[in-house]
């Protein structure tokens, strides 16, 4: 079953919100990406929840690549 983009966006929003509310982090970073970046031990638990041993690492690199942004924001345009 393929997860809709809308549902993925809701999960992303929850993860970013958790990073802000619980860990006092950036609103533009997911909890998974931060767990990998900070080397937190519970990144292993997060990976288990997603049944993916590289979930947090992949989330971190997705953040670096700005993979979650709409295509309009991914261009290297400058301000007017």
Explain how this protein is built:
This protein has 80 residues and is mainly α. 57% of the residues lie in helices and 0% in strands. It has five helices and no strands. It has helices spanning 5-21, 31-38, 43-49, 55-64, 71-74. α2 (31-38) crosses α4 (55-64). The longest helix has 17 residues, at 5-21. It is globular. It starts with a helix and ends in a 6-residue tail after the last helix. The mean pLDDT is 84.
Number of strands: 0
Low-confidence stretches: none
N-to-C order of helices and strands: HHHHH
Label the overall shape. Answer: globular
On the 0 to 100 scale, the average pLDDT is: 84
Largest sheet: none
As a percent range, the share of helical residues equals 55-70%
Q: Number of helical runs?
A: 5
CA gyration radius, whole angstroms: 14 Å
Structural class: mainly alpha
Q: What percentage of the residues does DSSP assign to strands (E)?
A: under 5%
CA(first)-CA(last) distance: 43 Å
The oligomeric state is single chain
What is the strand and helix layout of this fold?
Blueprint: H1 5-21, H2 31-38, H3 43-49, H4 55-64, H5 71-74
Features:
80 residues, 57% helix, 5 helices, single chain, globular, mainly alpha
In short:
This protein has 80 residues and is an all-alpha fold. The protein has helices at 5-21, 31-38, 43-49, 55-64, 71-74.
């Amino acid at each position: 079953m393929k997860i809709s983009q809308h549902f993925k966006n809701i999960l992303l929003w929850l993860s970013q919100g958790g990073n802000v509310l619980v860990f006092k982090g950036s609103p533009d970073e997911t909890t998974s990406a931060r767990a990998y970046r900070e080397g937190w031990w519970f990144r292993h638990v997060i990976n288990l929840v997603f049944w993916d041993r590289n979930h947090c690492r992949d989330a971190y690199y997705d953040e670096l690549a700005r993979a979650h942004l709409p295509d309009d924001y991914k261009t290297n345009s400058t301000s007017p």
